[in-house]
Structure formats: structure tokens, C-alpha cells
Amino acid sequence: MRSRSQRSTKLRPSITAILFLAFIITTFVLLFRKSSLKPSSQFNLGRPPLKDLHNSVKLQPLVESINGTDLIWQVPESPKAAIFIAHGCNGRAANFWDRSPECPNCVGLPEERLIVLQALERKFAVLTVSSLGKCWSFGKEKDSVRWIVKWWIEKHRLEKLPVVALGASSGGYFVSALAGEMKFSGIVIMIAEGVFDRMPVSPGYPPTMFVHMPKDRVRMNLIGKYMEDLRKKGVQVSEVRCLEFPLTPSLLFDRIPGLDESLSVKLFELFREKGFINEEGYMIKDGRATGWKQALKERDASMVKFELLDHIQEELNLAFAYHEMTSLQADGMFNWFESHMT
């Protein structure tokens, strides 16, 4: 017969294994609860899907100027739709395309270029136009752009295809006004509420999706009001709310071509050291209100190429989620367009 001490020794590994399993389960539950309490972007921010996209689609734009207005476009093989994209204040058509022999002055801001890449992957012919001034105006410029879009569609024999539009910030206001005078299958108004308080809306107004950031509560409330007004007039509306997400050591590397992983890690460590992000990686302030450029200058300004500063700024703004163009919701936007194309 075994002694009590022998039986205890025999059972000890099993008890240890059970306790270890219980610890793992408890830790997982606590982590899940913690993550569920904090708003997240709910989108895959990693390199693999972006890398796959870059491999499947190439940016090969054509550049032209008409009466002082810059146009940059690309028409994929066998297009199924066309999209006009309007930038925000201080933006330009060159922001949507990578620098190349075809477009030596292009900038390729991360969110803009990803929207174009995903549009091309979906077989949308893409037209981007630069505003004449800092922001879009609503008089002669609106008439000029309407003519340009029509001319471009006819030039590339796209007349039989659905045409949609997307505008961010000032471009969102512009697209909302343009949609009252052009036949779009659908529009996306990003980080803007539109100009629906200044224009009549007919029942033929196109289906409208608002992509916005709830941290801007004033704009969110106006969007809610306009959505209700549009519904009453028979317009189909939808809404996507963009939430903040945490920085990670590799995030800037994942989203900005030309920025290597070691630099991404160094920048993350600098942001954490200076208190620009909290313990979970969330931005304390909007990127534009964060002194990261000065901190970088004091540390080593040569760490980052000058032409990448705006790219980094855009991603910091996006992570804070108050007012910035975003490609994270591109699937939802293009699904919306496709669901209304006839």
C-alpha cells in the first residue's frame, strides 16, 4: 500500500497543471475585458494585407492640367465604375499617388494612396483633382469640376459605368454640393457634415454615407440631424463611426512606405518617453497638437526624411481619431458604392 506522502507526490503535477491552466484562462478573460472596454478601430492595421494590396495593384497615374486645374487619374483594365475624389483643405491631387516618373511631384500620403489602391483593386477608374485655392469653393469652381468630370468620363469612354464620389473635410462639403447637380450612384462624405443647410435636396439625391469621427461631437450631432433630414426626403443614408486606436512599435512601418521598422520603433519609444501616448499606446492629444516634431528635432532631426514628416503626422492624427482622412473603412465605403451601382 502506498503511503500518503507517495500519493501526494503523485498528484502534485496534476494539481500544478490545473492551476496553471486556470491562470491562463483568467489572464485571457481579464485581457479580453480590458480590450473590450477601450474603443478600437476594429480594423486590421498590419503589414500583410497592405503588402498583398501593393503587390496586386500598381499606381501608374497620368497627369494633366486644364485651365490651371491639376488632374491626376488612372483607369484600370476593364473598369466597372468611376470615382471622383476630392481632398481636404491644404490638400492636392498629388497626395493620392506615389512619386514616380509619371508623377514626379506626387506625395503619396498613406491614407490617400491606400484609398486609391483599394479603388483600383475594385476596378474603379480614379480621378483626383486639385482645388484652385487652399480649400474648395462653391461657385465657378464647382461648375468647372463638373465639366472636368464629364469631360474625363467621355474621354475614357466610361459613360456607361456608374460614377461615385468621395470627399474629405472641405472635399466632403464640395462633394455634397456637387451631388446636387451631377448624377452619382452614391457618395461618401468623410469628416464633414455636408452643406445640406444651404441647398435643396431632391428625391433623386444619391445614396449618402457619412464617415466621421465621434470625438468631434459638434460634427457628429450635425450629421445625425442631416441623416434624419435626408431620410425624410427619401435619400438612402448610412454612417460609419471611426474610433481611436493605439500606436504600436511597428504601426508607422506598417502604413508608411519608405519608413523602416527600426525607425518606427524609435519613434514609438520617443512618443512614449515624452508622454505623447499613454501606457496603452493611445495618443494623448491630436497629432497636430502634439510637439513630436520638436521632440524629434531635439533628439535627432536626421532620423526622419523631411518628406515623411507629413506622412507620420497623418497617421498620428488618424490614431487620435478627431479629424483625418482614413482608408481603414475603405471596404465598407466601396461595398456601399457597389450596393448602389446599377
From TrEMBL:
Keyword presence, Transmembrane: yes
Listed transmembrane segments: 12-32
UniProt KW keywords: Membrane, Transmembrane, Transmembrane helix
UniProt protein name: Uncharacterized protein LOC120257867
Originating species: Dioscorea cayennensis subsp. rotundata (White Guinea yam)
